[in-house]
Structure formats: structure tokens, C-alpha cells
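Query structure, 428 C-alpha cells:
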């Protein structure tokens, strides 16, 4: 009998874990059905219909994902399983990119750890949800990870620039990672910096095409989409909660007794011509910040801690719908995020500083825009692969001195307090 080579066995494991991840996602999507198309997901689908109509529309959402959805809907029409399969292509790409990214770390030869990492993300409830719901976090994770792998592997700067440009149109808040990637490339004297002009041209191409299109469609220049200035205003309004800052993002029309002032001010701005609304939101935002800088800094601190809390969205929505399975998903979410966080902290403390810093810069740059507007644990999904890569820079032995190191213990204590604070605020 012919024995399988180690490479062949490794590939089989990669494909087997992908198959398991796809089965889990199909079962999850089948169980929830079109209830997955709610909130932001419904907004993206609606904007896809507007794009297909060929008529001028108010670009509230970033255009990247609506255009991606419009491709499928234009070719095959709207069906739940069709859209779900179209979104699952992002998970397939993520799976193989994660495997490739891990192979570039010092633990590349530790095949067991590679399989464990792929399995963790296959089972991670937050990633399961974002693999089937039409939302932007997983596409951004894929494009950011692809840019990282491409830079390490020496892909064409044209391709890297195009991927980052598309990422910007899918989720404009990811913009801060682009100059940081350039800074990292310059620090490491990478070929990418020497050919940065080529990459920059490709990065700007999708943005220029969209900006030109919106100007021709509506007659005014727009900062990609309207939601950016609105979200900044919403998170810094005097009536906005100091900790649960994100809540108004999906509940701004509720509890008018408490948020009536905000609601009426928003109606006043929305009554203006569309070309004036962005400016009105920005002026109002910075006026609030100027008058209450202490409140702004408090909210920035709160948003930072919220960003690094574990994501309760997937489990909580099932619990609220009366599904007992939600409690299991809540526990699994906390376990997966906890493993990744401890792994990343260990790598950050003990890994070589030269190799650790780029990951820390990238994670910080991605989080920064959310500190200014509003934050939620779901927003950290795109950088969780970099938690994994950061952890791979540290030791994997079980030396007691590692786990008694003061820096690691302080980091674990701070992380634990962030999770407890989040749980406290999530309690009814």
C-alpha cells in the first residue's frame, strides 16, 4: 500500500477542516434562514438593488459589499441560498490565506498548531455568522490578510494596491492600516516601499472610480459614503451613552424619551440637501467634542476596552429569539476569543520586538477609527487572524517562568477585567 507523504496528509487536513467549516455554516444558515438578513445586512442588500436599478441613489452604505452582492443578484436573482453561497466564498478564501499566513511564521513546521488554528476559526461562532450573513467584517479580514501574505510573498504591488483599495470601499474605517502597512514596509526596506507608487495608483483607482461615479450621480463630492460622518456624530452626541456607545447605531429611533434631542437634531440635518448633510454632521460633532473634551476622552477609553471584549452578538441574538443553542454559542465565542487573546499576549510579551511590533501597529491602526466614533466587539473580527500570527512569535513551551512573568500576568489581568466589564454592561 502506498503511503501518503507528509505534504499530502497536511493538504488533506486543510481540506477536511474547510469541509467541516462549510458544513457548520450551512447548518447555521439553514437554521436561521432570512433572519440573517437584518440590520446592516438588509441595508447592504437594499443598496445592491439600488445599484442594479441604474438610478441615482443616496449612498448611505460603503459601496464595496453592495456591488459584490449586486454581481450575484444581477446574474442569478435574489435567493437566500444563492446569496449565502456567494458570501461563503469569502470564508473559503480566508481559510487558505490563514493557512498560508501561518506558514510564514516561526511555527510553520508545527502542523498540529496549523490545524488547530484552522479548526478554531472553523468553529468560532462569530466567524460562522459573518461567513453567511452579508456583512463587511469577513471580506475586510480576507483582503487585509491577503495584503499581508502578498507583501510577505512578494506579490505585485499593483495587486496589493488593488486589494487595499477594495478593502477601503468595503469598510472605510479600515483606512488607517494602509499608511501603517506602508510604514512597516519602509522600516523593513521591503520591495513594496520601493514600488509603492505603483501600488498607490492601484489603491486609488477603485476609490477614484467610485468618487467620480457618486459625483456624476448626485452632483456633489462625498467621503465614500454618508454613514461615516453620521456614525462619528452619533457616537459623540451629548445624549450618546458613554459605554454602550454602539447601541444608538441600530436603536437611534427607540426610547425617544431619553434620546429625543438626538432624534430631532438628526431629523433637522436630514431635512437639509444631501450635499450639506456630511458637513453638518462634522461641524456638530467637533462642536460637541470642543465643549466636552473630558467626556470625549472617557468615551475613547471606553471604546478601546469595548473593542477588545469578546463578541456576544451571535449567541445573544439566538438567546433573544428563544434558542437555547445561543448559550452554547456564547460560551464557544468566549472560549475561542480567550484562546486567541492569551496566545497573542504571550507572543506580544516574549516574541522578538522587531517581529512583534508590526502586528501591534496593525491592530492598533485598525482599532483607532472606532475609538473616535463608536465601537463594538464585532469590529475586532478583521484583526483576529493577526492575534494568531502575533502569538506564533512567542514560545510554545510550558515553562513555568513564562506563565509567572509579571508583564504577562498584568496583561492577562487587564484583559480579564475588560471581559468582566463587558459582561456587566450586557446584563439586563
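Result returned for the query:
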Amino acid at each position: 500500500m502506498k503511503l501518503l507523504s507528509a505534504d499530502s496528509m497536511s493538504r488533506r487536513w486543510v481540506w477536511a477542516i474547510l469541509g467541516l467549516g462549510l458544513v457548520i455554516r450551512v447548518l447555521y444558515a439553514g437554521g436561521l434562514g432570512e433572519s440573517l438578513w437584518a440590520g446592516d445586512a438588509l441595508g447592504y442588500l437594499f443598496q445592491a438593488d439600488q445599484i442594479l436599478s441604474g438610478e441615482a441613489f443616496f449612498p448611505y452604505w460603503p459601496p464595496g459589499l453592495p456591488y459584490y452582492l449586486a454581481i450575484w443578484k444581477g446574474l442569478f436573482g435574489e435567493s437566500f441560498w444563492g446569496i449565502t453561497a456567494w458570501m461563503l466564498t469569502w470564508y473559503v478564501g480566508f481559510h487558505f490565506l490563514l493557512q498560508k499566513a501561518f506558514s510564514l511564521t516561526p511555527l510553520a513546521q508545527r502542523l498540529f498548531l496549523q490545524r488547530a488554528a484552522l479548526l478554531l476559526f472553523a468553529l468560532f461562532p462569530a466567524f460562522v455568522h459573518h461567513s453567511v450573513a452579508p456583512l463587511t467584517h469577513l471580506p475586510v479580514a480576507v483582503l487585509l490578510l491577503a495584503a499581508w501574505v502578498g507583501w510577505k510573498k512578494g506579490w505585485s504591488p499593483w495587486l496589493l494596491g488593488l486589494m487595499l483599495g477594495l478593502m477601503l470601499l468595503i469598510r472605510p474605517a479600515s483606512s488607517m492600516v494602509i499608511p501603517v502597512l506602508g510604514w512597516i514596509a519602509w522600516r523593513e526596506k521591503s520591495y513594496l516601499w520601493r514600488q509603492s507608487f505603483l501600488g498607490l495608483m492601484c489603491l486609488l483607482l477603485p476609490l477614484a472610480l467610485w468618487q467620480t461615479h457618486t459625483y456624476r450621480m448626485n452632483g456633489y463630492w462625498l467621503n465614500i459614503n454618508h454613514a461615516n460622518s453620521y456614525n462619528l456624530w452619533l457616537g459623540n452626541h451629548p445624549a450618546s451613552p458613554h459605554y454602550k456607545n454602539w447601541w444608538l447605531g441600530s436603536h437611534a429611533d427607540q426610547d425617544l424619551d431619553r434620546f429625543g434631542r438626538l432624534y430631532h437634531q438628526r431629523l433637522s440635518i436630514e431635512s437639509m440637501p444631501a450635499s450639506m448633510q456630511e458637513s453638518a454632521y462634522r461641524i456638530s460633532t467637533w462642536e460637541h467634542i470642543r465643549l466636552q473634551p473630558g467626556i470625549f476622552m472617557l468615551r475613547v477609553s471606553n471604546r478601546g476596552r469595548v473593542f477588545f471584549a469578546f463578541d456576544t452578538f451571535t449567541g445573544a441574538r439566538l438567546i433573544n429569539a428563544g434558542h437555547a443553542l445561543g448559550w452554547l454559542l456564547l460560551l464557544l465565542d468566549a472560549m475561542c476569543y480567550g484562546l486567541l487573546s492569551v496566545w497573542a499576549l504571550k507572543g506580544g510579551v516574549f516574541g522578538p520586538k522587531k517581529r512583534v511590533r508590526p502586528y501591534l501597529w496593525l491592530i492598533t491602526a485598525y482599532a483607532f477609527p472606532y475609538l473616535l466614533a463608536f465601537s463594538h466587539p464585532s469590529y475586532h473580527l478583521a484583526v483576529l487572524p493577526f492575534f494568531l500570527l502575533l502569538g506564533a512569535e512567542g514560545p510554545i513551551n510550558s515553562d513555568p517562568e513564562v506563565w509567572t512573568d509579571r508583564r504577562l500576568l498584568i496583561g492577562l489581568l487587564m484583559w480579564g477585567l475588560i471581559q468582566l466589564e463587558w459582561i456587566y454592561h450586557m446584563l439586563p
